[in-house]
Amino acid sequence: MRSVHKRIVVAVSAVQFALLALVAVIISDIHDRFFPEQLGVKAKVTLDFSQSGLSDEEAFRQLGSISDRLGLGLMKVAPDLRRDQSGQVFVKVGAHGSFPKQIQRFGNQPDAEIRDNGALAHSFANGDYLVTGKTDRIAEFKDWLTSRRVDQQWNEETLITIFQFLTLQSDFGVTLLAVSALMVSLALYWLAVKARGRALRVLAGVAAWRIQCEDFIRFLMAMVSAAALLDVLAFAYVGFAYGWGFVPYYAKVLLLAEWIVIFLTMACTLALSAASWPSPAMLAMREPAVKSLAKSSAVLKIATFALVLATVAPAFAAYTEARKTAQEQATWKSLADQAVFVFPSRPGKAGGAESEKMFQKLQPFVGDMVREAEAADQVALSLAWTEEYFSVDGFRIAPYRYIIMVNQRWLDLVLGREKKRLSFVPLSPEQIPPDAKKVLEASFSLYVRNPQQAVNIWNQVKIYRLAGLQTLPFVRFGGQLDFAKPNEVILLLVPNVHAMFNDNFLISVASSSELSFTGLEAAQKLVSERGLQNNIRVNYMAEEGILRAQLFAYFAWLRAGSLSALIVALAIAAIISAFIAAVLKAKRDFPLRLGGASWWMSLRGRIAKEWLIGGALTVLIMALQGSDGWMAVALAGAMALLALPLVHIGAASWVFAKVSLRQL
């Protein structure tokens, strides 16, 4: 029997460590996304040049120069805009440094190309940069950035950062807690099946410290054996599936996670073992040896139940966020071929009369480029006025939050097939909130190409309210993508951008990335044909957005795994608690069952008690979670409480059979 119980401990431990191995795979995947292993990345920095006054060209030139001078080996992270836009490329900022043309990535990420600094010609300077060279002069680089008012956020990876990432990030911390709860449940099982032998050894006069030490070592060895077996399989799998170059980092993460779980588990095992020590009085009164574990198992079951319920709402929120992120990812992909114009300075921005004069000069050229591109259906307009914009002057647009003006090309880009999930309900000008109508009419009088158009503006612009489940993507000032719920939007659809709006308006929305052009090469051709290469830079619109959206999906997946582990922990804790209760009540349950009583009649007292406690705990957590998460908590609590009778009946049936065979 002893070997059977040990095999059960090893098998269940292996299952729990397999969950840790999956977590380590996800962490390694995210690590390789931030710190590509085959590039030998030493540090990562996110740079923002918006306050520096440097143009993108000048920023890249100066970064390349200092990277070569300090031996930093700076590389900019950019998305691979080809194929499905799920990969990344790394672009050398300087001229020095030897790199392969392509590197292997961890997981399902496609291999990444290494490109020369010429690939930065159509990128924004803001973004993530990797330090792949020397780090002894990073302090000098930081001072250089500070002197030029460049915002910098550094991330240097060490063993401590791995530990912090594992324990402080909610997704990974909950997973570790779940595995620890499972292992403590397993420790309760180990102590329960060893209880009779421990009691007999105490009665035989064996020293207490010896019994404790032997039980502790046996349980520890069973866990370590499971971990070692799993590690060998996991390391081999990662080596063959992803590449042996990724195994060292993966091993570091997995071993650290296993050490944390084993340490927590053994600490709890010692405490439970000491608390459940059989006393001479218990032996003299012929009380079951597992009686001392009843309170411990009940506390573990309640704690695990509370942990599951507390995690349900965040997990549901994570799923919701994952759906929104998937939508965002799809939208950014649809904008991967969109290009925007970058000017030396935006109209109205401090830059002196010379800058304003330059914009006045560029206005007719921008208008002409919009005309030519729109004729080929290659111009997309998205301009939004928010409720905050109106509230500055005391105006209100309730019940709406956004008034969004677009052309048909923008709707085709961002909605595509999802357009069927939105209903466009026509509105008359009188159905627009009065304050909004007043402000819009005043604005259109300044925007339109022909003053006569302002008089009949509502005959040209179509007005809709939206209904349905699909959110509407729109561009905020500066090129950031946002999503509006259908009931929050008044949509203005303009039939023709160039024919309706004057050149001053067009250069304004073009400089704020609210006007985009389809195709980088086509946009470059428009600029070069007018000899404006030195005045207008053509950049990809969606590079940084695609990079951000690529990362979010991992965490919802891990949250689902964490919740699954907690549910399994609750099941094991409930089974162990029911087993201990069945053993303690065997003297009562056995004659009742022999007398013809049903299982429900025999067990309803303990089931009702747990229903009462579990119901109260569910209501308490529902109140703490608030209105956003109460439904998920209520559903999880109801399912767990409904499963309790099955657990108790199964445990009592097993005990009844063992008592009948005189094996208990």
Describe the structure.
With about 675 residues, the protein is α+β, with helices and mostly antiparallel strands. The protein is about 60% helix and about 15% strand. The protein contains 23 helices and 17 strands. It has helices at about 1-35, 55-70, 140-145, 160-170, 170-205, 210-240, 245-275, 280-285, 295-335, 350-375, 385-390, 410-415, 435-445, 450-455, 455-460, 495-500, 505-510, 520-530, 545-550, 555-585, 585-595, 600-625, 630-660; strands at about 45-50, 75-80, 90, 100-105, 110-115, 125-130, 150-155, 340, 380-385, 400-405, 420-425, 460-470, 470-475, 480-485, 490-495, 515-520, 535-540. The strands form 3 sheets. The protein has an 8-stranded mixed sheet with strand order 11-12-15-10-9-16-8-17, sandwiched between helices. A 7-stranded mixed sheet has the order 4-5-3-2-6-1-7. Helix 9 (about 295-335) crosses helix 23, helix 20 packs parallel to helix 23 and helix 22 packs antiparallel against helix 23.
